[in-house]
Every structure is written in structure tokens, then in C-alpha cells.
Amino acid sequence: MPKRWRIQPHDPRRIAALERAVVRHFLAGWGDGGYYKEGWGASRVGTQGGFLSFLQALKVARGRDYLNVERTNASYVTMVPRCLLVLGPPGYFPYRSNMGPTYGNPEIGNIDQRSGMSSGGYFSEGFGAVADRHKPGLLWTYNHIFNADGKDVFDTYSLYPHRPMLALVNWPTFSGIEEKNPAEVMPLATRDRLYEFFAFRNRFSGPADVVTTVLIKLPDGTKPREVMVWGMNGLRLGFGEPQLGAAVSRWATAADGSGMLTAGRFSMVVDHSRASGADVLVATTGGGVPKLDVSKTGGRAAYTPLQLGEATVHVLSLHPEGKHPQPQVRGDAIVAGDQRITLKDGHLTLEKFTAR
Fold first, then answer.
1. pTM for the full model?
2. In what order do the strands lie in the sheet with 189-192?
3. Consecutive 10-residue runs of the chain (356 residues): their mean pLDDT?
4. Does residue 196 contact residue 245 with C-beta atoms inside 8 Å?
5. What span, in angstroms and rounded, lies between the C-alpha atoms of 331 and 343?
6. What radius of gyration do the chain's Cα atoms show?
7. Which of 287, 250, 243 is nearest to 264 (CA)?
8. 286 near 311, Cβ under 8 Å?
9. Which string of b and e fits 36-73 if b means at least 16 CB within 10 Å?
10. First to last CA, the chain
């Protein structure tokens, strides 16, 4: 073999080149809020194929820690997708992708999703590639959602021997770390500013949890394009498209994962306060008309379109026992239980809302 083709793994020039690729991966692949340009399917190729382990190696062997820093880019590669998981079984999450089904599907916990190099190892590798402050929350997600039935073996189902080895090295309980509810270690509402991806979760407790996600700057080919409201014991609802590509003019969140978002003419509120009487209340205006059949939700979802001035506001409520409020227009506001929603200067606003 010609000398110029020989690659020495310890060669500092090679390591420097690879580290430059890490930075590029975070500037053009992943954003700061855990979304990947080609969606969740292709993201696994860019993480499970060695990238997460390389981040860990840089930290341990080279003193280059991309994880325990203020910027969330590296740590959220693992944390945000895992914290979108809702209880199945198996665990599943609101899945968007630019690629076909061979790259993956929402049921991330299925054994057939975990045998390849670019699938599986989501926790055995992931624990080594998150900030120390996030490990208790990631452990809770594994214990209560990913492995809720207790049948998994430290996320080591794989054809590859490095996964069991990494589980032995990385598993938090082996070093005395105890689980914490993820809401204690990271916000329930997150934003990825590179792609304007927004995720709102009401809580981490069980199968009735709800995750709402919105993608504004969606790359070509991404499907689905709608607001996605998933959870509540298996519901997978689309709630109309936002104004794609629009500039975000407002973003506010509360400690309970509620949020208010405006991008161009599209505005949306997500209410987890239960002031309305619903577990989750979502309202949008200025986007696409929702196309959903709530008759197939077993009473867990109710949809009401309302006219507020010249604007149509779409209101979705979720409740595990079907105890929905009756939203109605009163004066200049939509009233649902003790919650009021107003529309001014293009912004939908929750009256009962305490910003973080």
C-alpha cells in the first residue's frame, strides 16, 4: 500500500480533520435543539454509526468536552429525541424524516429497529454522549418509557459487540447515578434555532403524556409537514401545516411545557396548565386547516374551529376520559374553562401563562 494512503489512527492531523467534521456536523446537520436536517431516520446514520462514540472518545482521551458546556448542540443530539418518546409499548415518538421506511419508523423500541450499526445503542451509546447533568433524566426515560416492561437488557440488542461494552462503561447506575424525572433536568419545551423545530411536552408520567412538535424551516422532502400532536394513549394527530419557512417573531415557554409561538402569519399556543379543563389544549391560526377525524380517537380528542374577528382559530383539546371543555368566543377572546385565548397583532396569547 502506498505510504500516502496509510492512515494512522493516532495521527493528530487525522484527529484534527475529524474534529473539524464534528463542528460541521453541528453547524449543518444538527441544530442546537436536537433536530437533524434529514429528519429522524437519517439522523441515526449520523449518530449511531460512530459519531456519539467519537464525541465520548474526544472527551475521555483528548480532553475535548463538547457535552458539559453551556451550548446544548452535542448533548441534545441524544436528549431531545429520547425525550420525545411516549409510552407504547414499544416507545414511539412523533417521527419526521426525509427518507423512506428503511431508515426507521416511530417505534424506536422495536427489536428490528436496533440490530444495525446505524440503529440501536440509543442509550448504551447515548449515555456516553450527554452532559452529566442530563444523565439522570435519560436514565428515567429508559427505565419508564423505553424499557417500561423491564425486558430490555441495557440496550444491548445488537449484532455488534461494542454495544454491550459501551453499556458496561456508560450505564449511569454503575457509577452511582440515580434516575430523575427528565422535567427536573431539562425544559419541557425546546427549540432548535437552525431548523426552527419546536417541541412541547406536558409531563413525563405514563402513556397519557402528550408531545406536540412543529417544524418551520423544514428541509425539502420532510414528511409529515403538519403540527404533530402525539400521545394520550396512542393518538397520532396531525393539526395542519404552519407557514413553512417563515421567520419566528415570538417564542415563549412556561415551566409546565406550555408555549406560545408565532412564525409569519402562523400563530399557535399549547396549554398544559389544565386551566381549560383539558389535559392539553392546542390552538392555531394562519396555517393549514387541520384534517383529522376525532370520531376515531375514543373521545380523547375534540376539535372546534372558531371565528375570532376575521381569523379562524382551530382548537384541539385532549383528555384521557373525554372530559373536554366547550371553547366559545366571548367578546375578543376564546374562552375554554378558566383559560382565555386572545389574538392581537397576529399573536395568539394564553391569558393564564407564566413565562419561564
1. 0.95
2. 189-192, 197-201, 210-215, 228-231, 235-238
3. 55 88 91 94 88 95 95 96 90 92 84 79 95 98 94 90 95 96 97 97 97 93 95 97 97 98 98 98 98 95 97 98 97 98 98 94
4. no
5. 11
6. 21
7. 243
8. yes
9. bbbbbbbbbbbbbeebbbbbbebbeeeeeebbeeeebb
10. 60
